[in-house]
Design a protein that fits this description.
The chain is built from 14 helices and 15 strands. The chain is an alpha/beta fold. It folds into three domains: about 270 residues, Rossmann fold (3-Layer(aba) Sandwich); about 130 residues, no CATH class; about 50 residues, no CATH class. The chain has a nine-stranded mixed sheet, with helices on both faces. The radius of gyration is 22 Å and the shape is globular. The relative contact order is 0.13. Bound molecules: 3,4-dihydroxybenzoic acid.
Protein backbone atom coordinates (compact mmCIF):
# COMPACT_ATOMS: atom_id res chain seq x y z
CA UNK A 1 0.00 0.00 0.00
CA UNK A 2 2.62 2.52 0.97
CA UNK A 3 4.22 2.52 -2.47
CA UNK A 4 0.99 2.76 -4.48
CA UNK A 5 0.82 6.52 -4.28
CA UNK A 6 4.28 7.13 -5.68
CA UNK A 7 3.76 4.46 -8.35
CA UNK A 8 0.57 6.15 -9.46
CA UNK A 9 2.12 9.56 -9.58
CA UNK A 10 5.33 8.68 -11.38
CA UNK A 11 5.86 8.08 -15.06
CA UNK A 12 8.17 5.66 -16.85
CA UNK A 13 11.62 6.79 -17.91
CA UNK A 14 11.56 7.23 -21.70
CA UNK A 15 13.81 5.37 -24.19
CA UNK A 16 14.14 8.50 -26.32
CA UNK A 17 12.96 12.11 -26.48
CA UNK A 18 11.16 11.80 -29.82
CA UNK A 19 7.78 13.52 -29.85
CA UNK A 20 6.76 11.89 -33.15
CA UNK A 21 6.45 8.52 -31.39
CA UNK A 22 3.76 9.78 -29.01
CA UNK A 23 0.05 9.58 -29.60
CA UNK A 24 -2.25 12.24 -28.30
CA UNK A 25 -5.92 12.12 -27.45
CA UNK A 26 -8.51 14.37 -29.00
CA UNK A 27 -10.34 16.58 -26.51
CA UNK A 28 -12.55 19.66 -26.53
CA UNK A 29 -13.66 22.48 -24.27
CA UNK A 30 -15.96 25.44 -24.59
CA UNK A 31 -14.76 28.98 -24.10
CA UNK A 32 -16.90 32.10 -24.72
CA UNK A 33 -19.28 30.05 -26.84
CA UNK A 34 -16.40 28.70 -28.97
CA UNK A 35 -15.60 24.96 -29.07
CA UNK A 36 -11.87 24.35 -28.99
CA UNK A 37 -10.64 20.96 -30.22
CA UNK A 38 -7.09 20.00 -29.35
CA UNK A 39 -4.85 17.00 -28.95
CA UNK A 40 -3.43 16.35 -25.51
CA UNK A 41 -0.01 14.71 -25.02
CA UNK A 42 0.34 14.48 -21.28
CA UNK A 43 3.00 13.43 -18.78
CA UNK A 44 5.85 13.37 -21.26
CA UNK A 45 9.04 12.77 -19.26
CA UNK A 46 11.29 15.34 -20.92
CA UNK A 47 14.74 14.03 -19.93
CA UNK A 48 16.41 10.61 -20.31
CA UNK A 49 17.80 10.48 -16.77
CA UNK A 50 15.10 12.06 -14.59
CA UNK A 51 15.47 12.19 -10.82
CA UNK A 52 11.78 12.69 -10.10
CA UNK A 53 9.14 11.89 -12.73
CA UNK A 54 6.36 13.31 -10.60
CA UNK A 55 7.62 16.71 -11.73
CA UNK A 56 9.97 16.30 -14.70
CA UNK A 57 7.05 15.87 -17.06
CA UNK A 58 5.48 18.12 -19.65
CA UNK A 59 1.95 18.40 -21.03
CA UNK A 60 1.72 19.45 -24.66
CA UNK A 61 -1.56 20.63 -26.19
CA UNK A 62 -1.96 21.29 -29.89
CA UNK A 63 -5.03 22.85 -31.55
CA UNK A 64 -6.70 20.14 -33.68
CA UNK A 65 -6.81 22.60 -36.61
CA UNK A 66 -3.06 22.10 -37.08
CA UNK A 67 -3.57 18.40 -37.82
CA UNK A 68 -5.95 19.40 -40.64
CA UNK A 69 -3.76 22.06 -42.23
CA UNK A 70 -6.07 24.79 -41.01
CA UNK A 71 -5.12 28.09 -39.43
CA UNK A 72 -6.29 29.69 -36.18
CA UNK A 73 -6.22 33.48 -35.79
CA UNK A 74 -3.66 33.69 -38.58
CA UNK A 75 -1.35 31.08 -37.05
CA UNK A 76 -0.55 27.75 -38.75
CA UNK A 77 1.15 24.53 -37.62
CA UNK A 78 4.41 26.09 -38.84
CA UNK A 79 4.00 29.55 -37.33
CA UNK A 80 2.04 29.11 -34.10
CA UNK A 81 4.09 30.27 -31.11
CA UNK A 82 4.54 27.83 -28.23
CA UNK A 83 3.11 29.21 -24.99
CA UNK A 84 5.21 27.81 -22.13
CA UNK A 85 3.57 28.49 -18.76
CA UNK A 86 5.02 27.14 -15.53
CA UNK A 87 2.98 26.57 -12.42
CA UNK A 88 5.69 27.23 -9.84
CA UNK A 89 4.65 28.98 -6.63
CA UNK A 90 6.83 29.52 -3.56
CA UNK A 91 9.74 27.72 -5.25
CA UNK A 92 7.80 24.55 -4.46
CA UNK A 93 7.68 21.47 -6.72
CA UNK A 94 5.22 22.10 -9.54
CA UNK A 95 3.02 19.98 -11.75
CA UNK A 96 2.65 20.31 -15.49
CA UNK A 97 -0.35 22.57 -16.17
CA UNK A 98 -3.62 21.57 -17.88
CA UNK A 99 -6.49 23.44 -19.55
CA UNK A 100 -8.86 24.02 -16.63
CA UNK A 101 -10.93 26.65 -14.87
CA UNK A 102 -9.35 28.78 -12.14
CA UNK A 103 -11.55 27.98 -9.18
CA UNK A 104 -10.01 30.70 -7.03
CA UNK A 105 -11.11 33.55 -9.24
CA UNK A 106 -14.59 32.46 -10.14
CA UNK A 107 -14.20 29.65 -12.67
CA UNK A 108 -12.52 31.70 -15.36
CA UNK A 109 -10.59 29.84 -18.09
CA UNK A 110 -6.90 29.55 -17.25
CA UNK A 111 -4.08 30.83 -19.46
CA UNK A 112 -3.70 27.43 -21.14
CA UNK A 113 -7.34 27.41 -22.26
CA UNK A 114 -7.13 30.97 -23.51
CA UNK A 115 -3.87 30.24 -25.36
CA UNK A 116 -5.35 27.19 -27.12
CA UNK A 117 -8.46 29.13 -28.10
CA UNK A 118 -6.21 31.72 -29.77
CA UNK A 119 -4.20 29.15 -31.73
CA UNK A 120 -1.10 28.81 -29.57
CA UNK A 121 0.53 25.44 -29.07
CA UNK A 122 0.88 25.01 -25.30
CA UNK A 123 3.68 23.20 -23.50
CA UNK A 124 3.57 23.28 -19.72
CA UNK A 125 6.43 21.65 -17.83
CA UNK A 126 6.48 20.60 -14.20
CA UNK A 127 9.68 21.24 -12.25
CA UNK A 128 11.32 20.04 -9.05
CA UNK A 129 11.10 22.35 -6.05
CA UNK A 130 12.68 23.22 -2.76
CA UNK A 131 10.85 20.83 -0.44
CA UNK A 132 12.45 17.80 -2.10
CA UNK A 133 16.11 17.00 -1.39
CA UNK A 134 16.85 16.92 -5.12
CA UNK A 135 14.75 20.01 -5.87
CA UNK A 136 16.95 22.67 -4.33
CA UNK A 137 18.54 25.44 -6.45
CA UNK A 138 19.14 25.31 -9.34
CA UNK A 139 16.86 22.29 -9.99
CA UNK A 140 13.71 24.17 -11.09
CA UNK A 141 15.45 26.31 -13.70
CA UNK A 142 17.44 23.33 -14.97
CA UNK A 143 14.18 21.42 -15.42
CA UNK A 144 12.49 24.23 -17.33
CA UNK A 145 15.54 24.55 -19.57
CA UNK A 146 15.49 20.80 -20.22
CA UNK A 147 11.84 21.09 -21.27
CA UNK A 148 12.72 23.95 -23.64
CA UNK A 149 15.49 21.77 -25.13
CA UNK A 150 12.93 19.00 -25.68
CA UNK A 151 10.71 21.41 -27.64
CA UNK A 152 13.63 22.72 -29.70
CA UNK A 153 14.92 19.23 -30.47
CA UNK A 154 11.41 18.25 -31.64
CA UNK A 155 10.67 21.39 -33.64
CA UNK A 156 10.36 19.44 -36.91
CA UNK A 157 8.25 16.69 -35.30
CA UNK A 158 5.68 18.90 -33.69
CA UNK A 159 3.22 21.66 -34.58
CA UNK A 160 4.31 25.06 -33.28
CA UNK A 161 7.43 27.12 -33.87
CA UNK A 162 10.12 26.34 -31.28
CA UNK A 163 11.84 29.59 -32.22
CA UNK A 164 8.78 31.34 -30.77
CA UNK A 165 8.63 29.97 -27.23
CA UNK A 166 6.86 32.41 -24.90
CA UNK A 167 7.39 31.63 -21.23
CA UNK A 168 4.93 32.63 -18.49
CA UNK A 169 4.94 32.43 -14.71
CA UNK A 170 3.94 34.16 -11.49
CA UNK A 171 5.98 35.06 -8.41
CA UNK A 172 8.65 32.36 -7.95
CA UNK A 173 7.36 31.14 -11.33
CA UNK A 174 7.71 34.69 -12.67
CA UNK A 175 11.30 34.76 -11.44
CA UNK A 176 11.96 31.46 -13.23
CA UNK A 177 10.25 32.74 -16.37
CA UNK A 178 12.50 35.83 -16.39
CA UNK A 179 15.56 33.68 -15.63
CA UNK A 180 14.69 31.30 -18.46
CA UNK A 181 14.81 34.32 -20.76
CA UNK A 182 17.95 36.03 -19.49
CA UNK A 183 20.01 32.86 -19.01
CA UNK A 184 19.11 31.27 -22.37
CA UNK A 185 21.87 28.84 -23.34
CA UNK A 186 24.17 30.03 -20.52
CA UNK A 187 27.06 27.52 -20.31
CA UNK A 188 26.92 27.31 -16.51
CA UNK A 189 23.82 25.10 -16.77
CA UNK A 190 25.35 22.61 -19.19
CA UNK A 191 26.65 20.09 -16.60
CA UNK A 192 23.26 19.97 -14.87
CA UNK A 193 21.42 19.48 -18.17
CA UNK A 194 23.81 16.74 -19.26
CA UNK A 195 23.43 14.93 -15.95
CA UNK A 196 19.65 14.78 -16.55
CA UNK A 197 20.05 13.55 -20.10
CA UNK A 198 18.37 16.63 -21.56
CA UNK A 199 17.75 16.75 -25.33
CA UNK A 200 20.66 18.09 -27.34
CA UNK A 201 19.44 21.52 -28.39
CA UNK A 202 19.83 25.08 -27.24
CA UNK A 203 17.51 26.58 -24.64
CA UNK A 204 17.07 30.18 -25.69
CA UNK A 205 13.48 31.36 -25.74
CA UNK A 206 11.71 34.04 -27.75
CA UNK A 207 9.84 36.00 -25.09
CA UNK A 208 9.15 36.23 -21.38
CA UNK A 209 5.98 37.04 -19.52
CA UNK A 210 6.68 37.45 -15.80
CA UNK A 211 4.14 38.39 -13.13
CA UNK A 212 5.55 39.73 -9.84
CA UNK A 213 8.93 37.98 -10.17
CA UNK A 214 10.52 37.09 -6.83
CA UNK A 215 14.03 37.36 -8.28
CA UNK A 216 17.38 38.93 -7.34
CA UNK A 217 17.21 37.20 -3.96
CA UNK A 218 20.75 38.30 -3.06
CA UNK A 219 19.62 41.94 -3.03
CA UNK A 220 15.94 41.56 -2.19
CA UNK A 221 16.50 42.04 1.57
CA UNK A 222 18.25 45.38 1.08
CA UNK A 223 15.61 46.44 -1.49
CA UNK A 224 12.81 45.55 0.92
CA UNK A 225 14.26 47.67 3.72
CA UNK A 226 15.02 50.54 1.34
CA UNK A 227 11.26 50.51 0.67
CA UNK A 228 9.87 49.67 4.11
CA UNK A 229 12.44 50.95 6.66
CA UNK A 230 10.49 52.91 9.27
CA UNK A 231 7.30 50.91 8.63
CA UNK A 232 7.46 48.74 11.75
CA UNK A 233 3.95 47.32 11.87
CA UNK A 234 3.45 44.40 9.54
CA UNK A 235 0.87 41.94 8.29
CA UNK A 236 2.75 38.71 7.74
CA UNK A 237 1.54 35.42 6.37
CA UNK A 238 0.90 32.95 9.15
CA UNK A 239 2.74 30.16 7.36
CA UNK A 240 6.27 30.18 6.03
CA UNK A 241 5.18 28.93 2.61
CA UNK A 242 4.66 32.18 0.72
CA UNK A 243 3.08 30.63 -2.34
CA UNK A 244 0.78 32.99 -4.25
CA UNK A 245 -1.54 30.05 -4.91
CA UNK A 246 -2.22 29.44 -1.23
CA UNK A 247 -4.99 31.47 0.32
CA UNK A 248 -3.35 34.20 2.37
CA UNK A 249 -4.09 34.61 6.05
CA UNK A 250 -2.23 37.58 7.45
CA UNK A 251 -1.26 38.05 11.10
CA UNK A 252 -0.43 41.48 12.47
CA UNK A 253 2.68 42.31 14.45
CA UNK A 254 5.38 44.88 15.10
CA UNK A 255 9.07 44.53 14.31
CA UNK A 256 11.32 43.82 17.31
CA UNK A 257 14.16 46.21 18.18
CA UNK A 258 16.60 43.72 16.61
CA UNK A 259 14.56 43.59 13.37
CA UNK A 260 14.48 47.39 13.31
CA UNK A 261 18.27 47.46 13.73
CA UNK A 262 18.74 44.95 10.89
CA UNK A 263 16.36 47.02 8.72
CA UNK A 264 18.57 50.09 9.15
CA UNK A 265 21.73 48.20 8.10
CA UNK A 266 20.09 46.56 5.10
CA UNK A 267 18.62 49.83 3.86
CA UNK A 268 22.11 51.34 3.91
CA UNK A 269 23.43 48.62 1.58
CA UNK A 270 20.97 49.34 -1.19
CA UNK A 271 22.24 52.60 -2.79
CA UNK A 272 25.72 51.16 -3.46
CA UNK A 273 24.15 48.18 -5.23
CA UNK A 274 21.85 50.32 -7.40
CA UNK A 275 24.63 52.76 -8.27
CA UNK A 276 27.03 49.95 -9.25
CA UNK A 277 24.53 48.70 -11.87
CA UNK A 278 25.02 51.99 -13.79
CA UNK A 279 21.53 51.90 -15.30
CA UNK A 280 19.85 54.65 -17.27
CA UNK A 281 16.14 55.26 -17.76
CA UNK A 282 14.72 55.54 -21.33
CA UNK A 283 15.39 59.31 -21.25
CA UNK A 284 19.09 58.62 -20.60
CA UNK A 285 19.04 59.76 -16.97
CA UNK A 286 21.42 57.79 -14.70
CA UNK A 287 19.53 55.78 -12.11
CA UNK A 288 21.17 56.49 -8.76
CA UNK A 289 20.49 56.79 -5.04
CA UNK A 290 22.27 58.89 -2.42
CA UNK A 291 23.31 57.61 0.99
CA UNK A 292 19.82 58.38 2.35
CA UNK A 293 18.25 56.28 -0.39
CA UNK A 294 16.90 59.23 -2.39
CA UNK A 295 17.54 59.99 -6.04
CA UNK A 296 16.58 59.41 -9.64
CA UNK A 297 15.96 55.67 -9.19
CA UNK A 298 13.34 56.35 -6.53
CA UNK A 299 11.83 59.05 -8.73
CA UNK A 300 11.56 56.50 -11.55
CA UNK A 301 9.42 54.22 -9.38
CA UNK A 302 7.29 57.22 -8.38
CA UNK A 303 6.73 57.95 -12.07
CA UNK A 304 5.60 54.34 -12.65
CA UNK A 305 3.21 54.59 -9.70
CA UNK A 306 1.83 57.86 -11.07
CA UNK A 307 1.21 56.23 -14.45
CA UNK A 308 -0.62 53.37 -12.75
CA UNK A 309 -2.75 55.77 -10.74
CA UNK A 310 -3.51 57.95 -13.76
CA UNK A 311 -4.78 54.93 -15.67
CA UNK A 312 -7.05 54.02 -12.77
CA UNK A 313 -8.32 57.61 -12.56
CA UNK A 314 -8.99 57.70 -16.29
CA UNK A 315 -10.98 54.48 -15.89
CA UNK A 316 -13.18 56.25 -13.35
CA UNK A 317 -11.73 54.89 -10.08
CA UNK A 318 -11.99 57.00 -6.95
CA UNK A 319 -8.47 57.47 -5.56
CA UNK A 320 -9.31 60.12 -3.00
CA UNK A 321 -8.29 57.84 -0.11
CA UNK A 322 -4.76 57.36 -1.54
CA UNK A 323 -3.02 59.82 0.75
CA UNK A 324 0.38 59.33 -0.92
CA UNK A 325 -0.85 60.70 -4.25
CA UNK A 326 -1.33 64.33 -5.21
CA UNK A 327 -4.20 64.71 -7.66
CA UNK A 328 -5.32 67.99 -9.21
CA UNK A 329 -8.15 68.36 -11.73
CA UNK A 330 -8.15 64.67 -12.59
CA UNK A 331 -4.36 64.54 -13.06
CA UNK A 332 -1.92 62.71 -10.82
CA UNK A 333 0.84 65.27 -10.29
CA UNK A 334 2.93 63.57 -7.60
CA UNK A 335 3.49 60.25 -5.83
CA UNK A 336 5.45 60.00 -2.58
CA UNK A 337 7.23 56.64 -2.42
CA UNK A 338 7.82 56.70 1.36
CA UNK A 339 4.17 57.54 1.99
CA UNK A 340 3.16 54.82 -0.49
CA UNK A 341 5.21 52.23 1.46
CA UNK A 342 3.44 53.21 4.69
CA UNK A 343 0.08 53.14 2.94
CA UNK A 344 0.40 49.65 1.39
CA UNK A 345 2.23 48.38 4.47
CA UNK A 346 5.02 45.97 5.30
CA UNK A 347 4.30 42.27 4.73
CA UNK A 348 7.61 40.66 5.71
CA UNK A 349 9.79 41.04 8.77
CA UNK A 350 13.49 41.85 8.45
CA UNK A 351 15.29 40.25 6.69
CA UNK A 352 12.50 39.47 4.27
CA UNK A 353 14.22 36.66 2.34
CA UNK A 354 17.40 35.37 3.98
CA UNK A 355 15.98 34.76 7.45
CA UNK A 356 18.52 35.02 10.27
CA UNK A 357 16.93 31.89 11.74
CA UNK A 358 16.83 30.11 8.35
CA UNK A 359 13.03 30.07 8.45
CA UNK A 360 12.09 31.31 4.98
CA UNK A 361 11.20 29.40 1.83
CA UNK A 362 14.24 30.93 0.17
CA UNK A 363 16.53 29.49 2.85
CA UNK A 364 15.07 26.12 1.90
CA UNK A 365 15.59 26.86 -1.82
CA UNK A 366 19.32 27.29 -1.23
CA UNK A 367 19.71 24.12 0.82
CA UNK A 368 21.25 21.08 -0.82
CA UNK A 369 20.72 17.34 -0.83
CA UNK A 370 22.03 17.01 2.72
CA UNK A 371 21.33 20.38 4.30
CA UNK A 372 17.71 21.51 4.39
CA UNK A 373 18.27 25.27 4.62
CA UNK A 374 21.13 27.67 4.10
CA UNK A 375 21.90 31.36 4.06
CA UNK A 376 22.47 32.98 0.70
CA UNK A 377 23.75 36.42 1.75
CA UNK A 378 26.79 37.48 3.77
CA UNK A 379 24.40 39.60 5.82
CA UNK A 380 22.21 36.63 6.74
CA UNK A 381 25.26 34.63 7.69
CA UNK A 382 26.78 37.45 9.74
CA UNK A 383 23.53 37.90 11.68
CA UNK A 384 22.70 34.20 11.91
CA UNK A 385 20.86 32.91 14.95
CA UNK A 386 20.41 29.25 13.86
CA UNK A 387 22.56 26.30 14.91
CA UNK A 388 25.20 25.01 12.43
CA UNK A 389 24.25 27.48 9.72
CA UNK A 390 25.98 27.37 6.34
CA UNK A 391 26.25 29.79 3.44
CA UNK A 392 25.18 28.36 0.06
CA UNK A 393 27.72 28.06 -2.77
CA UNK A 394 27.99 31.45 -4.49
CA UNK A 395 28.02 29.78 -7.92
CA UNK A 396 24.61 28.25 -7.24
CA UNK A 397 23.14 31.46 -5.79
CA UNK A 398 24.24 33.22 -8.98
CA UNK A 399 22.34 30.76 -11.19
CA UNK A 400 18.94 31.67 -9.70
CA UNK A 401 19.03 35.40 -10.43
CA UNK A 402 17.68 36.77 -13.72
CA UNK A 403 19.87 39.89 -13.22
CA UNK A 404 23.09 37.90 -13.59
CA UNK A 405 22.94 37.24 -17.33
CA UNK A 406 23.15 39.05 -20.64
CA UNK A 407 19.77 38.24 -22.17
CA UNK A 408 19.57 36.60 -25.62
CA UNK A 409 15.76 36.97 -25.40
CA UNK A 410 14.46 40.18 -26.95
CA UNK A 411 10.91 40.50 -25.58
CA UNK A 412 9.76 40.90 -22.01
CA UNK A 413 6.40 41.67 -20.46
CA UNK A 414 6.64 42.31 -16.72
CA UNK A 415 3.63 43.04 -14.53
CA UNK A 416 3.71 43.72 -10.80
CA UNK A 417 0.52 44.69 -9.00
CA UNK A 418 0.64 48.16 -7.47
CA UNK A 419 -0.43 46.51 -4.20
CA UNK A 420 2.25 43.80 -4.16
CA UNK A 421 4.38 43.77 -0.98
CA UNK A 422 6.01 40.37 -1.41
CA UNK A 423 9.19 41.99 -2.68
CA UNK A 424 10.22 45.61 -3.18
CA UNK A 425 9.04 47.36 -6.35
CA UNK A 426 12.75 48.10 -6.84
CA UNK A 427 13.36 44.46 -7.81
CA UNK A 428 11.19 44.45 -10.94
CA UNK A 429 12.19 48.04 -11.73
CA UNK A 430 15.88 47.09 -11.78
CA UNK A 431 15.17 44.04 -13.93
CA UNK A 432 13.14 46.08 -16.42
CA UNK A 433 15.76 48.86 -16.56
CA UNK A 434 18.65 46.43 -16.98
CA UNK A 435 16.89 44.61 -19.81
CA UNK A 436 16.10 47.90 -21.54
CA UNK A 437 19.73 48.94 -21.09
CA UNK A 438 20.68 45.66 -22.81
CA UNK A 439 18.54 46.77 -25.77
CA UNK A 440 15.57 44.48 -25.09
CA UNK A 441 11.94 45.46 -25.67
CA UNK A 442 10.36 45.59 -22.25
CA UNK A 443 6.69 46.21 -21.54
CA UNK A 444 6.61 46.93 -17.80
CA UNK A 445 3.69 48.24 -15.72
CA UNK A 446 2.31 48.22 -12.18
CA UNK A 447 -1.43 47.59 -12.63
CA UNK A 448 -3.48 49.55 -10.14
CA UNK A 449 -4.83 47.84 -7.01
CA UNK A 450 -3.57 44.40 -8.01
CA UNK A 451 -2.06 42.23 -5.22
CA UNK A 452 0.63 39.53 -5.52
CA UNK A 453 -0.90 37.42 -8.33
CA UNK A 454 -0.72 36.63 -12.03
CA UNK A 455 -2.66 35.84 -15.22
CA UNK A 456 -5.28 38.52 -14.41
CA UNK A 457 -5.07 40.27 -17.79
CA UNK A 458 -4.99 37.41 -20.28
CA UNK A 459 -6.52 39.40 -23.15
CA UNK A 460 -3.71 41.94 -22.88
CA UNK A 461 -1.10 39.22 -22.39
CA UNK A 462 -2.10 37.46 -25.60
CA UNK A 463 -2.45 40.73 -27.52
CA UNK A 464 1.22 41.40 -26.63
CA UNK A 465 2.18 37.80 -27.53
CA UNK A 466 0.46 38.09 -30.90
CA UNK A 467 2.03 41.45 -31.65
CA UNK A 468 5.61 40.37 -30.90
CA UNK A 469 5.26 37.08 -32.76
CA UNK A 470 3.71 38.48 -35.94
CA UNK A 471 5.57 41.77 -36.38
CA UNK A 472 7.95 41.93 -39.34
C1 LIG B 1 6.34 33.52 -3.57
C2 LIG B 1 6.02 34.56 -2.74
C3 LIG B 1 6.96 35.06 -1.87
O1 LIG B 1 6.69 36.07 -1.03
C4 LIG B 1 8.24 34.52 -1.84
O2 LIG B 1 9.14 35.02 -0.98
C5 LIG B 1 8.58 33.48 -2.72
C6 LIG B 1 7.63 32.99 -3.58
C7 LIG B 1 5.30 32.96 -4.51
O3 LIG B 1 4.14 33.34 -4.38
O4 LIG B 1 5.66 32.17 -5.38
Amino acid sequence: MSTSKSTLSTHPVPQNLDFSQLSGSLKTFEINGQTVSYRAFENIVYVLKPTDTRYQVMNIYIPEAYFKNQSVDGFTAQTAPIFFPNDVGGYMPSQAGKPELNQRDGNTPNAIMVALSKGYVVASAGARGRTEANGRAPAAIVDLKAAVRYLKANDKNMAGDANKIISNGTSAGGALSALLGTSGNAVEFEPYLQALGAAKANDTIFAVSAYCPITNLEHADAAYEWQFNGVNDYEKMDISMLDYKVERKLVKGTQTPEQIRLSGSLKQQFPAYVNALKLKNPQGIAMTLDAQGNGTFKKQIEIMLMQSAQKALDAGKDLSNQTWLTIQNGKVIAADFNAYAKFVGRQKTTPAFDGVDLSTGENNLFGDENVDKKHFTQFGMANNTAANAQLADSKIIRLMNAMNFQSPTAYYRIRVGENDRDTSLAISQLLALQLKNQGKLVDYALPWGVPHSGDYDLDELFAWAKQISTQK
